[in-house]
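Bump. Still looking for Branched-chain amino acid ABC transporter substrate-binding protein structure tokens.
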Amino acid sequence: MTHPPRRALLQNLLALAACAALPGAALAAEAAPVQSAGKPAPVQVAFIEALSGPFANTGESVWRNLLMASERVNARGGVQIELRRYDNKGQVDESLAALRAAIDHGARVVLQGNSSAVAAALIDAINKHNRREPERQVLFLNYSAIDPALTNERCSPWHFRFDAHADMRMAALMQVIKEDKDLKRIYLIGQDYSFGQAVLREARRQLEKERPDVQIVGDELHPVGRVKDFAPYAAKIKNSGAQAVLTGNWGNDLTLLVKAVREAGFDGRFYTFYGNALGAPAAIGEAGIGKVFAVADWMPNVPAPESAAFYKAFRERFPKPEDDYVHLRQQLLIEALAQAIDAASKRPGGPTAAHIAASLENAKVQLAGRSGHMRAQDHQFQQNLVVGVMDKQGAPGVPFDVEGSGYGFRIVRDIPASEAEMPTTCAMQRPWQP
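Sorry for the wait, here they are.
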């Protein structure tokens, strides 16, 4: 990966230092940094994600955020982290093989998120590994796998989720759908695995509760990452008479879907989980203005000077238009991890996985004018959520576009963490407590 000149990098780090609020914690460089005199050994962190195949763009977008975040906290001195990449090709078996390799290489923290099926398998594998080998226990920090079950009936003391789960995101979108009084017919479509199924299940439940007058004219699941031509799906959406499409699709499955639906002549609205990047705005084009909605923890046009400074620093670090997908939650994840490592390092025995986990349960972090905290009950991170609508760059509230497309997202809802929070059924047993 190409790095910017040293002066530019230092300028980025200095610009972001004003936004960060975690004194004393630090992470090291990307891969196998040389340990400096007087500094403790780095904590090894394994990044397990699809870096090849149909969802490689999603994996690389995460990597850029984690890399920049580690560079920022690394510059502060103190605790170090060694960040390593493992390509799981988007497959469960490859992910489990990567987990074993990472543990053998000395990893004590695992990062993954772009697939709830993979996340569920990693949780099970890490639970078993930590029972069998308490001297080599590992943590799992999840930044995007948002099947609600992962912090409910499948919750684990070793798993921490930094993204809002699907039901939380759906509730945020529903705030906008409730006010769409012209909406009478909606088409639900998603990827056929645990997350996609959860999205459509919750969409049906919340529509029945909040908009019982809206007719669901389509309810469909499709294979994950295997559909190359969405034209047949687009034709069904167009012929259904739907006025809006609701989807949790992500990555190439979203880009190809919206492109096909647009080409089919559909001129209705899109309510999406991830329609704000990875080629979707450019694929939709002018037809998306005022009609494409997305929900996230943060977007570049959040109206705050700290937010704008953070986004500009990211774009300086990664100037290619196609690299423009900023995940603030992933940067907050690294800040929280650094904070927890720093606290665990002061305990007898040092930063073991159990010590880091115990500290991470109490993490409170902020960056770019946004903040969040970990809920100890179920290890579900609590933070504001925003809903944005697509518009032309330069329109009121849209100083920044997405991926050089000329289109950005204007914030129409900024939902406080206290309102975004949802109850949990988690009954967690912590092995580090008597």
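The longest helix spans residues 56-74.

Edit: fixed formatting.
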